Amino acid sequence: MRILLIAGLADSLINFRGPLILALKSKGLVVHVAAPGLAQGSTMLPQLEALGLVVHNVPMSRSGINPFVDILSLWHLWVLMLRIRPSHILPYTIKPVVYGSIAARLAFVPHRHALITGLGYAFQGRDGSRRSLRLLVQGLYALALKCSQNVFFQNPDDLSLFRSLGLLSSKTKSCVVNGSGVDVMAFRVAPLPAKTHFLLIARLLGDKGIREYVLAAQRISALSPRAQFSLVGWIDDGPDAIPQSELNSWVRDSAINYLGRLSDVRPAIASCSVYVLPSYREGTPRTVLEAMAMGRAVITTDVPGCRQTVVDGDNGFLVPAKSVDALVEAMERFIADPPLAARMGARSRQIAEDKFDVHKVNAAMLNQMGLS
């Protein structure tokens, strides 16, 4: 049997799907992967081939809405599937799910799965500028998921929303899994620093709550130097990206220690005592799971995806999205009570082991796909 994984970002195949790929190979499947940016000379190409994968470069724009480019992506995926004849497909993120699922139906792939890892920019916010894009994405999802036999969601809120919008056919199976999981052996507990140190890791997008985090850091730093604030991430493509000029102003502000993009986030997590993600909506945030596995308390928002990671008052605090005041209040609780981070961090590790262990998550997915 052959399975084709389709990604919108080549890096994610190892960073987010590496353990799943190894689990698929352990079942005897030949694993093909397709993503943009995998032409000869790509730094990711040898890493993927070293895992024994069959690698395919496909043209795809993650954030653009040019219909000609998207039709070209659909055509390339269809031709690829006709050539390699996979028995299973598993696309994830919006464009791979939409065009991969349609191409698979047209190519008569027998087992068609899809993974919804989050709803993205179009579904976040209710401003008029996003309405047309949201309606377009909903229509594409409805068409694509009719071509899928099995759809994975990473939180129950996203599944409920898709059902309420009529995007899931009654013939399509659905299943909620606990995010992408985290390798609890690779992300081990690290000692806490002596000083209260907050950390946020995210693509620099407004909907990740980056601005709220920076404003909270500036407000607390103006009153007390007792805490440190670090930011890891990079400016991403898309209409919600933080402008370079705004990032430059944060770098000049001594309240934030900007670390840029890191290939390995574990040293950054080890240096912090509390992990913060004020996102407006997620699938299940991988960085939160990584911080939990390393024994960190978490402050995140009471929104889909994020709320599944924190038991409020147990391993961290849930705050309303977009509320700088609530974020400041939660941070100040850790500053006023330094041992709190250790107590909550220990609970985070337990929850990561019990609920989010990547091997448990992958076993559930393989079982749903009939590959256990």
Describe the structure.
There is one protein chain. By secondary structure, the protein is of the alpha/beta class. The protein folds into 2 domains: 2-181 and 358-368, Glycogen Phosphorylase B (Rossmann fold); 196-355, Rossmann fold, CATH 3.40.50.2000. The chain is built from 14 helices and 13 strands.
What does the secondary structure layout of this molecule look like, with pairings?
Elements: E1 2-6, H1 12-15, H2 18-26, E2 30-35, H3 44-50, E3 54-57, H4 67-84, E4 88-91, H5 94-106, E5 111-116, H6 128-146, E6 150-153, H7 156-164, E7 173-176, E8 196-201, H8 210-223, E9 227-232, H9 244-252, E10 257-260, H10 266-271, E11 274-277, H11 286-293, E12 297-301, E13 316-319, H12 324-336, H13 339-355, H14 358-368
Parallel strand pairs: 1-2, 1-4, 2-3, 4-5, 5-6, 6-7, 8-9, 8-11, 9-10, 11-12, 12-13
Helix pairs in contact: 2-14, 4-5, 5-6, 8-12, 11-13
Strand content: 15-25%
Q: Per the principal axes of the C-alpha atoms, what is the gross shape?
A: globular
Strand order, largest beta sheet: 3-2-1-4-5-6-7
Supply the CATH class of the largest domain: Alpha Beta
> Which consecutive residue ranges, at least 5 long each, have pLDDT under 50?
none
Keyword list:
single chain; 372 residues; alpha/beta; Rossmann fold; 2 domains; 7-stranded parallel β-sheet; 6-stranded parallel β-sheet
Question: Could you provide a short overview of the structure?
Answer:
This protein has 372 residues and is α/β, with parallel strands linked by helices.
